Batch of 2 targets.
Target 1
Amino acid sequence: MNNTRKKLIVGNWKMHLNVHEASTLLHRLHEHISAHRDVEVVLAPSLLCLQPLSVELDRHKFRLAAQDAYYKDEGAFTGEVSFSMLRDLVHYAIVGHSERRIYFGEDLKVVREKVTAAVRNKITPIICIGENSEERKAGETKQVIHDQLTTAISNLTSRDIADVVIAYEPVWAISTFGGQIAKPDQIEEVIRYIRYQIKELYGAKAAEQVRVIYGGSVDDSNAGSYLEIPGCDGALPGSASLSYHKFAAIVEAAHRQQLKQA
Ligand code: 13P
């Protein structure tokens, strides 16, 4: 793995914080996080907060991600916001989060359409994939990862893949769904499998270039052990990203890890 590539830390604020609260958290983060060349910090507030935060944030420190968007560019789809509308506002969009799959019934095809729409609109998708606890217990983890991954990226070219982010988020490790603490070797095995699948489909270069990050109860106490997993390019904390001191500590852990590897 290329040691010089940046670690990517994405805070998924989920459906928390109104505009005022989000702005307060942004200011706290600004005070507590220093810009590091080797760490990219991305914030994923609610859709409503993207526009106000975009004018407030220090672009040397933070980038924005949407938590979701709709795959049609425009039309009669009451209540939806499209990737094309978010185009100049965000660098990234989380796609296929397990909460979307489980609570809102997003299936493999919807996730694929969203990934395609994000790429079409020059937004980098952070594609979330991961098995639930029953699937893990039944020994189906690789099958689930295979199906979710290969469907999600099936419309992409190898050039598209180089810019995509895959987030391995085992459902059983997400705080919303029980939040068991995953062991680094469990994560390492799946990350290796994700790159193997990309290699099979797009070749060795794409497998090396694609960024793979981990999410699931990442906090300031365990981030270091996850960020040093071979092939792990970063982290996607949820609850810990709502605490400025925990999130700042995760960013610092990423920077320390980079210094160790340099
Ligand atoms: P937690 O860090 O709260 O487990 O959430 C992880 C997650 O779902 C990030 O997308």
Target 2
Amino acid sequence: MAFNKRVKIKTLLEQSPIGESVTIMGWVRTRRSNKNVSFIALNDGSIITNYQVVADPNQISEEILKKCATGACLKISGTVVESQGSGQTSELHANSIEVLGEADPEKYPLQPKKHSLEFLREIAHLRMRTNTFGAVFRVRHALAFAVHQYFNDKGFFYIHTPIITASDAEGAGETFKVTTLDIGNPPKTEDGSVDFKQDFFEREANLTVSGQLEGELAALALSEIYTFGPTFRAENSNTTRHLAEFWMIEPEMAFYDAEDNADLAEDFLKYLINYAIENCQEDLKFLENRLLDEEKSKPADQRSEMGLIEKLKFVAENDFVRITYTEAIDILKRSKPNQKKKFQYLIEEWGADLQSEHERYLVEKHFKKPVILTDYPKEIKSFYMRQNEDGKTVAAMDILFPGIGEIVGGSQREERMDLLVSRMEELGIPTDEMWWFLDTRRFGSTPHAGFGLGFERMVQFVTGMGNIRDVIAFPRTPGNAEF
Ligand code: ATP
Ligand code: MN
């Protein structure tokens, strides 16, 4: 007989087949015993709820029961009966228990008590066995699934762009190098610099910071595409919103202008939120209570005005605010924190780059809504963004979310060859190396646009987790690559 004839706890809770014999498998969360009977709360990760198993010492030997301690993995066969206790409709009366994997209760790092998120980060290999992380990773899965559902329904094609590239799309230079050269003793050219001609790719290569440029090539053939893959940035920013390795969703569409782009982004974000609200009810309820609990330790004025689910509904049901960078600068200049010099970076004049404190002021204090900011000064944005008539701004679009700041960055792309080339030359971006990118403008160019959504920031927003390290299974940040 096959080993796995188990019923998932999620199914058992949904169906409660009273009187039937079933087998469940999972990990012990808690066990309570008295003289007559033991209660085991079993969790198999299929759902946040534990399933209650009642084990009678007349049926299950004391030796086995001793091993059913927190953390142990069990296979339990028994009869589904109506629950005597509260809450659940059914429970399992055990006929047999097989201990699949013991866990020494003295040494098991996860105790039934509450652990801090910081502590759990140090045991990331086990933290998925907690309610919080089980909920986060089920929601993360649902959102990833919804991404594909959304684009597939709209006729977009999923493109796998390369992870190793020779281009640095942002021109930021914050890349991880990919090489097979002996870094202690690399081959040198005559002028003493490293001879990358002798490297694996016969040139310098790095991990991708974005799939956009390749995405553009695909959009100018398949019309509407998206990427969803890992991206890497060697930026040394130890914030609650930056990872060195994160996942990005990048749709790229031919025949879209800036407004089409913003419309798609808003619709997409709302779809993801609604998908989670509809499909992750139990987990979101749990995460909402977790957040409430966490906020109790904060001063009253820093607590959120809405509960998690109410906030999600609010964002999904209301129009995002759309303003230009220039309008935002006016608001920020006149704002209290700017007047009272409370911002770390004061907004003095047009052209200033917006910091996260400014983005969050606009979203959380001024508008109290997600904001789509458009038409930034070209100096603070990338070379590929479409230049506006004014000669000063580009058709950029950032979407700012409460509690997160920038969640989406995008733009209409510069489709005009002459303007693109002159901008690249101004910025010192080698046009010869980018010949393949420029070919799309050379041959059959067309207006097109796209954006990048940081997947972990979206998961943060939906789950209410304050630190981005807690929404990816094994976070990579400066100094951290354990597990
Ligand atoms: P930020 O200013 O917050 O560093 P960015 O301007 O570098 O963001 P983009 O290059 O436009 O961001 O990337 C698109 C999206 O990818 C961002 O809107 C954000 O959601 C996400 N993102 C960017 N950098 C990171 C990172 N280091 N970790 C996680 N997500 C990120
Ligand atoms: Mn960045």
